[in-house]
Amino acid sequence: MKRWLPFAITAVLAVWILGALRVPKDKSGSFAINQFGSLPVVANGRFQPLDSLARNSLLQLREKQRLNLEPWKEWWQKPKMISAIEWLMEMTMNQQVADTRPVFRIDHPDLKALLALPMDANAAQQTDAKHFSWNQITPKLRELQEQMKRAAKVESSKRNPFEQAVMRLGNGVGLYMRLQNTLEPQNARDWNAELDNYLAAIEPGRTAAIAENAGKPYDKAALEKLMHDLQRFDTMLALEMPEDPDAPKLPLTIPPPESSPNGSKLWDRTAAVLMDIARGRPEPFGVRAYAKMSSAYVKEDVSGFNSALADYRSALSADYQPQLRKVKNEQLFNFFEPFYRGMVVCVLGGLLAIGYWFVPATGDYLRRAAVWLAALTFVVLTTGLIYRMALEGRPPVTNLYSSALFIGWGAIALGLVLETFWKNSIGVVISCVCGFICLIIAHHLALTGDTMEMMRAVLDTNFWLATHVVIVTLGYASTFVAGFLAIVYIVRGFFTTGLDGGTAKSIGKMVYGIICFATLFSFVGTVLGGIWADQSWGRFWGWDAKENGALIIVLWNALILHARWGGIVRERGLINLAIFGNVVTSWSWFGVNMLGIGLHSYGFMDQAFKWLMGFVLSQIVLICFGCMPLRKWKSFSHLPDTSATPPSGKAAPQPA
Length: 656
Description:
This protein is mainly alpha-helical. It is 63% helix and 3% strand.
């Protein structure tokens, strides 16, 4: 039974992963929700499905890709859930219902007090005191706006937690209002009928306006009707194009009319199109299609909605077949969720690998199962990275989010290589721990918006850029792997009795080998970055913050090797230096972005600073443990002195 256990566990998880590699079919007799989610829009400089817009928006508001309509219920009570695209359909076509959904996450007690929101969970009052609806926030919207103005005057790095919470909620409110004006004016009741009324009012209103300007008698009612509609659309346009240049812009949802010349087939926003129709622009077919879908959705006319949706997709297929295929593939990627599923497998593999350390004599099946699961995680992440590359048409690292994925992928690969040489479960533990940490980091980075958003133009091209970023990121990954191997050494040696002399020696060899690998890749990657900078910016080196960070990693790895070769440090000294390499690499990866300066500055997040400082502090604490005399280590406390021989018969590691 134990012999087949690794295969059985891996097979079950593989089936679970492969089962997600499809877009669920819409139920017969219901709204074609997933078909609607596959409609293309242009956002962040690329075609993407409405499904991606919905998921990214809900992540920013609620930090989840599904909406719990009854958050006050526990999971075993089976609260009602809807998908992100169902929520977006409500947001854009049935806003009265959407305004009742608990979509805003608010945790700060002072902010809840400002908005007069419930402070404690109460199932009877149907609140979990964390998630709130638009209707609950609007009575105190003016107070929120005043606090936002005050917080906006404070430098982002100096805002207190309350001010940060205010700005996050304010940005969420802005996103919410813009989404509700994506396809139609806010609070439209029957948009298809209202659109007909607007089109019918254009000519009489225009005639009345001309007569008024000429000082002649005019139809005041016709002019007022047209002006009322134009004011609604002008409000939409103001929301779609916020004053803050860093605020997310709403997507271009309307394809050009069929009569547009080939050279001017540019997609546009609904509000801009509606304003242009009054100036004589032909009505694009997309406006009418969405209007029909909206009215049918509000009236719960399933056949009418699905028919309008099918007609719109048919009209798009004539000129946008490549775009339709691309957004369909991205929608499939959204349902596949390779990085989430890889993270789940990673956790299970890590638990099995750690379990092997407690029963190494009889539990080799645990180690083999962990190796198989780590290999499955590697395959899933590789598939996900290749899929992302195909969707973006770019190398695997294009932003901070993708760098976290790639570092996790590289760490898993290196750990598996180590496990092939030292079959002691240490390599697979490193694979799973490093992979899990990087995937968690990527998950939190995804909360900021579209993860496939392209870099700024100057960072978005050139063969040298692609090779530089990939190789230097592998340098990051390998330095982290060496550091986490060193952490295993200290944790097992200082806190447990599970580190014998032989295991300590093997970990030391692993760290040394990985440091050699990291030095090579970080150095080559930095040189390639200089070649790219010379071609793109006209200089090989400019002492940019990111360049300095990369150089520091090279110098630190070189310092470790020279200290080892020169006999300045021995095994434990190597271990402690490798752990400090985690500090150096985390600063070069995340810290320099927080400075907000330099041509490489991207991916800044206020929340990340405290986590970075916490990580640095944890590494310093581990180094302090690593410097303790060996007699204080649990693994060697039973020995009479540090030169004694452990029970394994191998020489004990010597102090630095």
